[in-house]
Amino acid sequence: MALRLLTHFDVRADVLPSLAAEAGDTGVLETAYESLRVLNIERNGNIIYTYKDNKGNAVFGIYDCQTRQNEHLYTFEKDMQAVSCSVNSERTLLAASFVQYTKEGVRSELHPGSKCLTLLVEIHPVDSVKVLKAVDSCIWVQFLYPHAESHRLQSHLLLISEEKYIERFHIQITREDGNRVVIRNSSHLPRDRIAEDFVWAQWDMSEQRLYYVELEQSKSVLKCIQFWADESFTLMFEMPLDISLSGLRFKFVNFGYDYRQDQEKLCNQPSLCVFTNHTGSLCVCYSPKFDSWEEVTYSVFYLHKGYRKTFTAAPGSAGSHVAKGITFLNLGCLVAVYIPGHFLHLLNIQHPDLTCHSLFLTGSKMAAVLPPSPLQSLPGSLVLDCSSGKVYRATVDQSYLMWFLWNAARLDCDKMAALHCALLCGQDPGFQEDQVIQWICEHASACHSFDLIQELLIASSYWSVYPELADVDKLLAHSSVLAWNEEIPGVMLVTEELPLLLMKVYNLTGYWAKLNSNLEYVKYTKPHLHYHNSVVRREWHSLVSEEKTGKRRSTMYVRNILDNAVKVILNMETRTLEPRLIPLLQEEDRHQRLLVGLMVSELRNHLVRHLQCVEKKKIEQTVLDYISKLLNLTWCMLETIWRKHSAHPWVPRLVYNISWESLPVVLRGTTRDNRVCGSHTTLLSLPSNKHGSAAEFEVFHLMTRILDATNSLCFPLPPGFHSLHTTLGVHCLPLYNLLHYIDNGVLLLTETAVTRLMKDLDNSEKNEKLKFSIVARLPPLLGQKVCRFWDHPMSSNIISRNHVAQLLKDYKKEPRNSMIGKSSFPTEFLPLNCFIEILTGLESSHQE
């Protein structure tokens, strides 16, 4: 299943045992079992339920999710149907609304002239009962909760009426005879009108917000009221929405579940809900009334991004019937759009720009994801199954996503979406990133529209630091793909820009400040502020070029860059708990350290420039974590491939004796056509032979892929990567291919790799040819160093030539007396005698 539902609360399993222990009467349990249902969930997560006892009385109880204990709240000694119930945070007051019907269908005698009765009860201890409303329209009740638990002397109660108004009651209480709570002046409770003439409302108990839609000049206007801890409230924003609510039965969301509603009729009505999360996202999910069962249309207003996306999906095969309405579920950074038995669409609300980052599943790919009964989405990724009374915590099932990637994902868009959904799980405690890495290592060449390795490096590094900094989504890229023009099978999409200038945010604190920041970014930031390595690329190439030619920058400048790299390496080592099989970070690799240090410097400057309110120390650590993650991902990919074949560490060894005929035909043909670089490398399936093991061939191929991916992004590699890559190349490739890889820049001749080659290989005819070919391609300075490790006349010749060239570099011709007769090395060739004398003199002067 794409979604995993973990039972958070089961009204029967968590309540009935407690009732059995208290009552000891099977008759009470049988009656309670039939009538037990959830009425409300308060801000602190406590769940209010009701049931009928064996006398038909309405009983209210509360389940504390922290202590997992049940508490009896109140018994109303009348046979009445409860519609709504709420208790204040101190559990001293209870408000409830009832529909007044007896078993015989006759109006209750408590208030015979009304259909709905709303009561306020003192329950600490149970004392007086006050009638708040007695009307013919339904009433829902909800106590407001402060941000901090406290023993206040005032509570506030919302009454939401089917007659399209919302009132707030101010309830003053006093304490008498110790802890006894009494309502003060209960006959005249102050009240104020919060909203009126609206057609839809939603309560967010977690954040104490009220969303509602008013019709102004035939236009639907979404508004939000925020209730504060100091008992005030503020209209936070209003936004016109281009939606039609015609045919909508007056509907409340998250004010409790109305068990009297006909679910068959509800599924044909428009559906609307609002989802937010702590990053400042604000999504309005809307589905109009179904005109045809052949296709389903739903829209998501990404208000924090400034556009609306309208999706049209075919719910099933021709003639199929959608028996249940569309369901929207808030999963944090994802929104699930679901029709039982037809499709599941996991929408990425944090990065909704490209459709390839959202996963669309139908038929057998979807499986039986969620219960078919009516579902109600709650804050904190909670889902209430209204029929069974179960509360679930919904999460993306990583094991299913990995199964989907291995077995069912055929299209690039499916692979991209499933990969991003899986990486979103990185914030969950049970996330296993090694499973994602293993799949990518096995399918590095499987996608044509994008590079899987690049996508892993960028996306995984992004999500690793995402929780650490606010606004990081505006400053760091989350994907290597900038545009996607391919269609997603089964769903059509239309994108429309929203007139954000019409959206007014009236308060800038907490979540609202983040939302406003998102809106300001969308309105005024062109182009976007995502970090890229173009400056690093230019500076790095300049530094490397200067080092090759012997030029030097300011010592302090280069030292600071290398110190940055040292910080990253130390950060990696502190986070590496298990011993590694692939030897990296064990050599200087100055060029890669320069690249690491430059990226630290540029990324730190980028974040400091745009996050001026964040401590520099925190930004510094975020930068180190981000780049450490990049390097560690590369290392983990190599480890994964090696562990597939061996549980022992890889020991560098050079046995170069591969002939052209020993390579597979596919490699021979490809390399002779000079197609060895980048994404055209064909080393994926090289078989093992007596020289290079299967593990070494696979690691070499993967390293070539990684090199191609990081080069285009100018991402650093772990120091030692190039030496290992070249060593494997010597071991796995014949001379022609090896030199071709070197000449095309795929293999780099590092000092460590070449020194190992000179030391480890003997002076057989083939090895001499290899060594000479390598030395001929080295920069002069490096060539002089490594030739000292090659005990061979050719090496001595090269050393002598370099020595003579160095002596003659500063030679100035001066008049000399003929010393031919005094020469210590007399020859018949007089000019040579003169040249020897000049060299002898130069050596003597250098020694002095």
Automatic annotation (TrEMBL):
InterPro entries: GSAP_C_dom, GSAP_fam. This is Gamma-secretase-activating protein isoform X3. Residues 631-772 form the Gamma-secretase-activating protein C-terminal domain. It comes from Mesocricetus auratus (Golden hamster). Pfam families: GSAP-16. It comes from the Eukaryota. The lineage of its organism: Eukaryota, Metazoa, Chordata, Craniata, Vertebrata.
